[in-house]
Design brief:
mainly alpha
Length: 192
């Protein structure tokens, strides 16, 4: 049975990342670059970072919040239904395919989280980064094919960089928060 509290937390994290992306990051990025490509693909795509980290830690339990967050944010933004369904599907497939391939390669159950107890001695940062790269390539291929008529040659590359940099930002934020919480906990434990 899915952990509903975990799914709610993931949903809220994704919604927060979408709002930050579309109402802070993209306007700043477009203001700085004034490129047409900035309208279609960000160089730091935070929602992809949240999705990659979520799937790495909890596996397929993250899929329902991902789908719901995509559909809700795009509905709230008034996006075209065809584009909304396409991007939501691509997002799920771009996250799911590397998970299945990674687990197949390591001879584990196909829908197990990337960072499960079966992987002892695997570096967290490297695992998530490799996973992010695989998901970014799939996402970039599909999304650039949707926008092929606009003729921006660097669009696929922007998708790849945006997904990877977005994952790095989210991962670094999580590591920073963890470090702060550990240091606060150690001070609390060591104080009389």
């Amino acid at each position: 049975m899915p952990n509903l509290r975990l799914q709610l937390i993931l949903f809220m994290a994704l919604m927060t990342s979408f709002f930050l992306q579309y109402y802070v990051v993209l306007p700043v990025e477009f203001w700085l670059s004034q490129e047409t490509a900035a309208q279609y693909a960000s160089l730091v795509y935070l929602p992809q970072g949240v999705k990659v980290v979520a799937i790495a830690f909890v596996g397929v339990q993250a899929l329902a919040p991902m789908i719901l967050a995509h559909l809700l944010i795009y509905t709230l933004m008034g996006m075209d239904t065809g584009y909304m369904l396409f991007t939501s599907s691509v997002s799920v497939l771009a996250i799911l395919i590397p998970l299945i391939l990674f687990n197949y390669l390591t001879e584990r159950p196909l829908f197990l989280p990337v960072l499960s107890q079966y992987l002892k001695g695997i570096n967290l940062f490297r695992s998530v980064l490799v996973y992010a790269f695989a998901a970014a390539l799939i996402n970039a291929l599909a999304m650039a094919s949707w926008h092929v008529e606009i003729g921006i040659h660097s669009l696929a590359l922007r998708y790849v960089f945006g997904d990877i940099f977005g994952t790095l930002v989210v991962l670094m934020l999580l590591i920073g928060v963890k470090t702060i919480l550990v240091s606060i906990g150690q001070r609390y434990i060591s104080s009389p």
